[in-house]
Amino acid sequence: MLLLTTSSAVAMLSLSPAARGQAPGPIDQTWVDQQLVAWQPSVITPMSFGAEDLKASYDNPLLSYNSMQVQSSYLNMLNSTGAQFVRIDVGYDPWLSGNSTAQNEMATLIGQARSDGKGIIIADASAERYRSNPLPWAQFQTAWVQRVQTLASLFHPDYYIVIKEPGWYAPMISDVLTNPAAQSPDSWLNLTAALTSAVHSVSPDTKVGVAIAADSLSSNPSLYDPYLKGLAGMGEISFIGFDIYTITGFTATQNYLNTYGSGSKDVWIAECWSSDGTNVNVYDPSRAALDATWVQAAYYFAEQVHATMMIPFYGNIFASYNLSQQSPSDPGQIVSLLQERTPVFYSFQNVISTNAAGTLPTYTTTTSQTATSQTSTSGTSAQTSGEATTGSISTSASSTGEGGGGSGAFGGRAVLLGAAIAVVVVLAVVGLWAARRGRAGRPAQS
Q1: What is the three-class DSSP state of 344?
Q2: CB 174: neighbour CB atoms within 10 A?
Q3: Which sequence spans correspond to the domains of the chain?
Q4: What percent of the chain has pLDDT over 70?
Q5: Rounded Cα gap, residues 193 and 235, in angstroms
Q6: pTM: predicted TM-score of the whole model, two decimal places
């Protein structure tokens, strides 16, 4: 984390509720049960669903144990949810270093997803080298535009999230604390326009959008209100995404949309999970029942705000709570775990299938089902015996073993950053600036 002050916050940076010293309240079963009632839609609107491919994202493909067999198995697991889209947060290090092997492997994975009938969502993940060698804001923007143009020309994604939370990039910008332009809504709007034009210059059919951390709406309205309102009037932007991991994130998103709307832009829940603070270990198997009901509540919320896309972030948990950031590191063991399924997998699968049918989710899971191993190598939705017709959810967790690797910080979820130092109060947490990093130096290591 960068240096933090309580007196002069850099506008582009934002803090999670936990980091701000606020108590957002836990996403627990009581809260989820309440929201299942409060948010239950009276009319089902069709929407699309994405699945996050963490093994292919950031610099995870460069890890030796993430072999192509692992990558293919992971993609097959995601495909079996029935989600129409696969999201990859493409790390750019292989292109900066000239690693043609890694570049070709990314092309192979994207080709596999397409052959399985999936659409492709690319989210910008910058390059890991900028963490240790940050660039000045002006130079960083130039590199950013070149990066999205290169990847768009290579992969022609259906959708491109060209900015995934402004604060996420702060450690990669050397003058973020001193350059007013890096803190200006107008500067971010100009950058967004340049990124969008760069993508459309080489891939005109790609729909472009941005995402923000939902809690930023309440922690930094001076940046995010004018930025989002500016996006609403930007013709080439197709969608605005909200990344929601907290109760306050749900509230902030709904409050903003109720107040300002989204203009003509589609609303996405671009990332979401049930982690509610920096000390939550999302890989704790005791959360299995909670996660299964949470994904339905999150879907109900998406219906409430008329979202057109919903993407749960921790795709590895669809297979096993033992697939954490740090472990296992044996490819054979990883492939074996990828044949398993958790209650949240079946619940998400049921959400997708019932949305397509125009009905409310009807899902029940049992202890025996939790241990069931199912795969779908064709990319079609696996049929399960867990689908019920009761109209309610009853879950029973049976995962065993270590939850693994959360490292205390959302287990990998990005905690957005602090702000400029006023000399007196310093909170230096170098290496833990973003909780999406499973351990220092690697975001969402998986």
Answers
A1: helix
A2: 17
A3: 29-443
A4: 75
A5: 9
A6: 0.82
Residues in the chain: 446
Domain range 29-443, CATH architecture? Alpha-Beta Barrel (3.20)
Given the structure tokens 């920096």, which residue do they identify?
Answer: 278
- At 127, list the tokens: 């390059």
CA distance 57 to 438: 13
Of 398 and 232, the structure prediction assigns the larger pLDDT to: 232
Rounded CA gap, 258 and 243, in Å? 17
Average pLDDT score over residue span 30-44: 95
pLDDT tens track for 346-363? 999 999 999 999 999 986
Cα separation, 27 vs 37, in Å, equals 15
Q: Are 164 and 434 in contact (CB under 8 A)?
A: no
Assign 114 a pLDDT band (cuts: 50, 70, 90).
Answer: very high
CA gap 211, 215 in Å, rounded: 12
Other Cβ atoms within 10 Å of 292 Cβ, number: 29
Note the pLDDT tens digit of each residue in 177-225. Answer: 999 999 899 999 999 999 999 999 999 999 999 999 999 999 999 999 9
Dihedral of the alpha carbons of 383, 389, 394, 399, in degrees to the nearest 10: -10
Strands (E), 132-274: 159-164, 207-213, 237-244, 266-272
Beta-bridged to residue 52, according to DSSP, are 87
Beta strands in 265-331 (DSSP E): 266-272, 307-312
